[in-house]
Amino acid sequence: MGISFYSPSTLLDDTTPLTVPRAEDADEKTGSSPFFWQAPTSDAVLFMGDKWVELHGYVSRILEKQQTGTETPAFLAKKSTSKKHPAWLEYVLQLSQLRGYVTLYPRPETASTILGAHSDLPNTPEEYLGEGDENDKTGEADSATSKFDPASPVDMLTTLPREGDLLALGDLPLISWIGKSTSLAELETTSMELTKQFRQEVGGCPPSAINDEDEFGQPRRNKDASDLFCKNKGTASADTATEAKDIKETA
Questions:
Q1: What is the DSSP string of 47-114?
Q2: Could you tell me which of 161, 217, 209, 195 has the C-alpha nearest to residue 26?
Q3: Is the N or the C terminus of the chain less surrounded, counting Cβ atoms within 10 Å?
Q4: Cα-Cα-Cα-Cα dihedral of 119, 125, 129, 132, to 10°?
Q5: Cβ(223)–Cβ(54) under 8 Å?
Q6: Where in this protein does the record put region Disordered (predicted)?
Q7: Which candidate, 207, 34, 28, places its Cα nearest to that of 108?
Q8: pLDDT tens, 46-90?
Q9: What percent of the chain has pLDDT over 70?
Q10: d(C-alpha 87, C-alpha 99), whole Å
Q11: What is the pLDDT of residues 215-228, one digit of tens each?
C-alpha cells in the first residue's frame, strides 16, 4: 500500500501492543528489522500513486452506497481504528484487507533518526473534536524530545540491521492487521474470501458475480476498485453516467 517513516508500537486501536517477530535469519546482535504490516498508518506515510487512485475510487463508491442504501453492512459498521486517527484511515484499512495490501515500516532505531513524532500537544482529528473524549496532553513531556535530535550526527545508514546488508523483502516479518504473524499466501486467501463477501453484502453483486475473474482466470481487480461493486437496477452511479456519455458520443 505504501511506505511509512514511522515505527508504530501499538495496533490501530492505540491500546494493544504491536509485537514484531524477529526475521528468520536475524540474531540477537542484529535486533529488530523493517517489517510489513497489513495495517496502514496516517503518520508520516507515503502511499503509492496507483493505490491512492484506487483508494479514491473505493471511497467514492462507498459513499454512494451509503447515500442510496438504508442499512449499513457489518463490514462498514465495524470500526477498527481509534479516534486518535483520522476517519479516512478506516477506508485505507478496509481496502488493504480486501486487496491483501501491506505497508513497509522501518525498525524503531531507524525511524527515530528519520523523524520525531511529537506528543506534547493534543492532536485529535478535526472530525472528532467536541466529542468530549479528546486527550488533553498539554504540559506532558514530548516523546520526540528524548528520541529525535535533528542536529544529531548519527547516520541513518548506521541504524540499519546487518550493517546495511538488507534482507530480501520476502525475508522480512509480515504481520496481519490484528498483529499476528502471517504470510503472503494467507493474506491472499483471506482477501479473496473477504472480497466475495464484500461484493455480495456491500457491492450489491448477485451470487453469479462474486467470483468475477479477468481474462487470465485471476480475480478481477480494477484500478479504480470498481470490480468490488455492481450496479443495481434503478440506481444511478458515476459508472453508469460515464457509460451513457460514451455511448452518446460514439453514436
A1: E-HHHHHHHHHHHHHHHHHHHH-SS--HHHH---S-TTS-THHHHHHHHHHHHT--EEE--HHHHHHH
A2: 161
A3: C
A4: -60
A5: yes
A6: 115-154, 204-251
A7: 34
A8: 999 999 999 999 999 999 988 887 788 889 888 888 888 888 999
A9: 70
A10: 20
A11: 777 778 899 999 99
